[in-house]
Amino acid sequence: QVQLVESGGGLVQAGGSLRLSCAVSGRTFSVHAMGWSRQAPGKEREFVAAINWSGRDTYYADSVKGRFIISRDNAKNTVYLQMNSLKPADPAVYYCAVRKVPFGQLSWKADEYDYWGQGTQVTVSS
């Protein structure tokens, strides 16, 4: 059974940083694209970052470009989201996801991801 477990969320002051981690268990996803999305109360889910299987290609939503960095450690079956210069607009539940197709291209469309974690809450105080 595939399981994705996010960690690293919490409360941070505006301008601060957090690093989210997502550990995948149940099978190896070292050759699969992975990504992060977020959802704030009353707002639609937004896909914020994605990374291809090798880590060479990445995608960022305009809202986080230049502030967030997605990376992965295939040996640990883990994907990370380094969030810098956090803003009051960033609080949300952050979810990681993985695509089932091996060597597939990264995607910024949530419906192209097959497995999702339960999410980790990020709160930013002003």
Short recap of the structure:
With 126 residues, the protein is mainly β.
Please render the helix and strand layout as text.
Elements: E1 3-7, E2 10-13, E3 18-25, E4 34-39, E5 46-51, E6 58-60, E7 68-73, E8 78-83, E9 92-98, E10 115-116, E11 120-125
Parallel strand pairs: 2-11
Antiparallel strand pairs: 1-3, 3-8, 4-5, 4-9, 5-6, 7-8, 9-10, 9-11
Can you walk through the features of this model?
The chain has 126 residues and is an all-beta fold. 0% of the residues lie in helices and 47% in strands. The protein contains no helices and eleven strands. Strands 2, 4, 5, 6, 9, 10 and 11 form a seven-stranded mixed sheet that branches. A hairpin with a 6-residue loop joins strand 4 (34-39) and strand 5 (46-51). The protein starts with a strand and ends with a strand.
Task: Give, in order, the helices and strands.
Answer: EEEEEEEEEEE
Number of strands: 11
Q: Estimate the strand proportion.
A: over 45%
Helix count? Answer: 0
User: Distance between termini?
Assistant: 40 Å
Major sheet details: 7 strands, mixed
Spans where pLDDT lies below 50 across 5 or more residues:
none
Helical/strand content category: mainly beta
Radius of gyration: 13 Å
Mean pLDDT across all residues, rounded? 95
DSSP helix fraction: under 10%
Morphology: globular
Which tags fit this structure?
single chain; 126 residues; mainly beta; 7-stranded mixed beta sheet; 4-stranded antiparallel beta sheet; globular
